[in-house]
Structure formats: structure tokens, C-alpha cells
Amino acid sequence: MAERNGMYGNEVHDVVVVGGGAAGLSAALVLGRARRRTLVVDAGEPRNAPSSHMQGYLSRDGMSPAGFLAAGREEIARYGVGLVRDRVTDVVPGGDFTVVLGGGRSVRARRLVVATGLKDELPAVPGVAERFGRDVLHCPFCHGWEVRDEPFGVLASGAASVHQALMVSQWSEDVTFFLHTVAEAELSDQDLRRLAAAGVDVVPGEVAELLVEDDRLTGVRLADGSVHARSVLYVGPRPVPRTDLLRRLGAEMRETPFGTYPVVDPTGLTTVPGVWAAGNAIGFAEQVVHAASGGYRAAAAIVGDLLMTDLDAAVTG
């Protein structure tokens, strides 16, 4: 996308927002309305791109992710916020931050918002990647209502998969838990009792492939050749946070069962002065509504921070 509103060049921006998803656009909207010179750099890789709809966002329930982002881009343009389609390859700290773009140019910023999100690495089972976001799902809060009462499968990938199988049982009474590469001995007695109480069938054996007819999931075939009719399969992707920029800047990181994320305060401020983070860049479970809220909080904090910095400089200068 071409540069917009003259916001791309040698001038120092108040804020560069890295990432144009829900968190980044929300931050940019607040910053633009606060009359702060802002540029969004967007590589165009939203996490929820495979989905045709998003849910649970009050007043936007059922809206397509692409439509949501398009509306957000239109809104920030009203306030003079610039947007460029590019990838940030490096950030060099100094008096200001020098933000290096993949196209070979660079921009300068007094403050940064890192909203680069994460990537979902899917189980290497034939058919899973092709149907992800359609009838291969990972979040019942996102898609459970739309597939309610259908025959569910849950593909185990670790201990957390038991929790997923129990959770999805609230949307269907017909749930089969495929242990796949997880040994039944790895399940605790409490796990087995809860699964039984929830009416979840536990099936050992590795899943070999998904069966599809007329562009619809119809079943799961195990390595032993047995077939289980299912129309929905829940999987547990391995989240890979896109936090390279934060690491390069020296941000303190924290290990979680779902990846390594930056340590942030309630506004999203990292341990690097002048650098905020929001959305899936700070946690696996940030839904669109959470990401938008996080971007808003970060932007509001930055507006106050810049104001006080400028006033203090005026007083002492």
C-alpha cells in the first residue's frame, strides 16, 4: 500500500505502530484522535485470517476479520494516521527509535507499539492446515456456537488437550477425544474421571488423516485404518509469538506454557523505555476484543507519557 497522508519519510513520528491488526489499529485510532503523528507498519499477516467470521465482540459479532480490519483502516485515515504495507526488520534505539523496513527505507519514532501477534503452528496431520478456520477449529468461544450439537473430535497434542476436550463438551454432547500421539497413561485419574463425567469418548491411536467429501469434513481415519465420523475437529496449535523485535531491543521475557512473551505493565509498557506491546504479542489468549482494548490502553498511556516528557523538557529547557 502506498504511503498515506505524508506520514512516511524523514520526519520523526510520535509513534510507530508495528502491526495493523486489532491491537495496532486500535492504538493508532486513539493516537490519531489525540493528534499524535502516527504511522502503522503492517505486514498483512493477521492471525485470524483463515476464519470467515469473528465472534464475541459486542456490536461486531459475526463480522468477517477482513471486513473488521478494513473498517479500522478507514477509521484511522480520518485522523491523519499513516499506513504502509511493509515489514519491520529491525529497530535501532537511540535518542529516538530508527525503525528499519523490509523495503529498505527507515522511519524514526519517539515511541513504539509492538502489535506483531503470533503464528499458529498446526499439527502435521494431512487435511488439518487446509481446513483450519472452517471445520478444523481451536477455540470454542470463537466458533462453538456455529457448530453446536455437531459430532466433535478433539486431537490431543499434550496435557492441555484434556482441558480443550472438556471445554468443547459444553457445545456438543457428542465429543470424541483422539489421543493421537499422547499415551493414555499420560492422563491422570482425575482427567479420566472428568472426561467420563462430561460424556467424552477417549480413543487411543494415532490420527493418520482427515476425510473430506464435498468440501466438508466427514471423518477421522486412524493409523490402524478405523474411521470415526466427525464433522468438526478441534486442534491445539503451537503458538509462536512474533517477538523478535522485542528481543532485539532487550525486553525482559517470561516463559509460559503457550510461548515466551514480554513482561508488561497494565498498560502494555515493556521493560524497554518507550516500547509498548499489545495483542497476541503479549499473550496467547488475547481475542480480538482483548487486543483492541490493549491497543487502546497502550495508546492512552503513550499520549500521557509524551505530554509529560514535552512539558518537562519545556520547563527545564
UniProtKB/TrEMBL annotation:
The chain crosses the membrane at residues 12-31. It comes from the Bacteria. Keywords: Flavoprotein, Membrane, Oxidoreductase, Transmembrane, Transmembrane helix. It catalyses: [thioredoxin]-dithiol + NADP(+) = [thioredoxin]-disulfide + NADPH + H(+). Residues 13-293 form the FAD/NAD(P)-binding domain. This is NAD(P)/FAD-dependent oxidoreductase.
